[in-house]
Amino acid sequence: MLLVHKYGGTSVGSLERIENVASRVAKAKDAGNDLVIVVSAMSGETNKLIEYAEYFTKTPSKREMDILLSSGERVTASLLSIALQSKGYDAIAMTGRQAGIITDDLHTYARIESINTQPMQDALKEGKIVIVAGFQGINKNGCVTTLGRGGSDLSAVAIAGALKADACEIYSDVDGIYTTDPRIEPKAKKIDMISYDEMLEMASMGAKVLQNRSVELAKKLDIKLYAKSSFSEGEGTLITKENNIMEQVLVSGVVLDKNQARVTLRNVSDKPGIAAEIFTKLAQENINVDMIIQNVGIDGSTNLGFTVPQSDLENAKRVIEGLEHDIGGMDFDKNICKVSVVGVGMKSHAGVAAKAFSTLAASNINIEMISTSEIKVSMAISAKYGELAVRLLHEAYGLDA
Ligand code: ADP
Ligand code: ASP
Ligand code: MG
């Protein structure tokens, strides 16, 4: 079989752990598989590099950031290859560029446009284990780009798609996808199979166990995607098409996102085109706006609130300041979080949202904003209640039963 494995930051977080990954990879090779191994930077490394840059400025150039951040993954790719070679295995490390990964120009959040698989295929044909530095590629001008936080998952899925691999296995410190983050709720249960759509909502709503764009791509290319642990054996969780899953549950999981901030715009001119202008400008800066609420206008003006990732807040402020003529004032709140309930069963059942609201109300937790889709309900609440809300909702939907 041709398999793509991806080992995340914790799995390669020390030399001993890289050694552990090398042993696992060696075992998979001995079992007769062709292997492409995608690695992340050692845990904490990317954050450390960002801090280094922010020592000089809060808004470093994104082009330079990409050169800086891509270095973390190169360290682990080369070390893993060296570890395998020292065990007598024929391994070859490749940067994103050497693995043929071509992206668009959007520095720090680039999209993969194509993969020239020839170098990887040549190496595989020679029996080599291919080790690829995740999270990176190059644009058409040859500049290094990175794929957004958690982007090594996307590298792995894209490579699996381009090579038509039999499966893509994402290894982390948890042995699969749970009904909620087991660090928040120890009673969380492992899920054997979950649909791409539910996984996509969970990832988009903040469950960092898989990066959302990687799930989106796996769905598009119908890739057999597994979440497994690099510290234990086990089947993990299969992420697959909804119709492959026999047992349909009402709610699959509860997700907490602590990295949201709320922006409130006061006295916004209540006339056609203002919302379009605000959100178009934010989109042009690639700022991901999630929940939006607008009040009914009074006396020609209204209030408009929305959430953005905390990392985009500085950029969002800058964009809004450029629109001052139509906005009376703005404030920000980083002390919020977003709790979401996800499940395909919601499509055919009424009352799921009402249950979420009444569960929080019963514990006197105020809901500040709400957004819904066919298969999720999200609520912005005060940050200090985030973990409590997750546990309450997890219990309310019987997920710990
Ligand atoms: P890696 O560094 O290997 O990419 P991540 O830290 O990105 O791994 O993802 C694994 C973490 O995701 C786990 O340690 C766990 O705390 C967290 N997590 C959040 N939600 C879930 C969930 N529903 N199921 C499993 N893990 C989750
Ligand atoms: N090292 C990058 C990050 O921390 C990419 C990844 O780990 O997937 O976001
Ligand atoms: Mg990750």
Please tell me about this protein's structure.
- With 401 residues, the chain is an alpha/beta fold.
- It folds into two domains: 172 residues, 3-Layer(aba) Sandwich (Carbamate kinase), CATH 3.40.1160; 143 residues, VC0802-like.
- It contains eleven helices and 20 strands.
- α1 links the parallel β1 and β2.
- Bound molecules: adenosine-5'-diphosphate, aspartic acid and magnesium ion (MG).
- The site of aspartic acid has 13 residues, from α5.
CATH class designation of the largest domain: Alpha Beta
Structural class: alpha/beta
What is the rounded distance between the termini?
A: 37 Å
Mean pLDDT: 95
The overall strand count is: 20
Would you give the CATH topology of the largest domain? Answer: Carbamate kinase
The parts where pLDDT drops under 50 for at least 5 residues are none
CATH superfamily of the largest domain: Acetylglutamate kinase-like
| CATH architecture type of the largest domain | 3-Layer(aba) Sandwich
What spatial order of strands do you see in the largest sheet? 3-6-2-1-9-11-12-10
Mind summarizing the main beta sheet? 8 strands, mixed
Provide the domain count. 2
Helix content: 25-40%
Q: What is the 3D form? A: globular
Catalogue the ligands. Answer: adenosine-5'-diphosphate, aspartic acid, magnesium ion
Radius of gyration: 22 Å
Number of helices: 11
Task: Give a concise summary.
By secondary structure, the chain is an alpha/beta fold.
Write the layout of secondary structure elements.
Elements: E1 2-7, H1 15-30, E2 34-39, H2 45-56, H3 62-86, E3 91-94, E4 101-103, E5 112-115, H4 118-125, E6 129-133, E7 136-138, E8 144-146, H5 152-162, E9 167-172, E10 193-195, H6 196-204, H7 212-221, E11 225-229, E12 237-240, E13 253-257, E14 260-269, H8 274-284, E15 292-294, E16 301-309, H9 313-321, E17 327-333, E18 336-342, H10 352-362, E19 369-373, E20 376-382, H11 386-396
Parallel strand pairs: 1-2, 1-9, 2-6, 3-6, 9-11, 10-12
Antiparallel strand pairs: 4-5, 7-8, 11-12, 13-18, 14-16, 14-17, 15-16, 18-20, 19-20
Helix pairs in contact: 1-3, 2-3, 5-7, 6-7, 10-11
Bound molecules: adenosine-5'-diphosphate (ADP), aspartic acid and magnesium ion (MG).
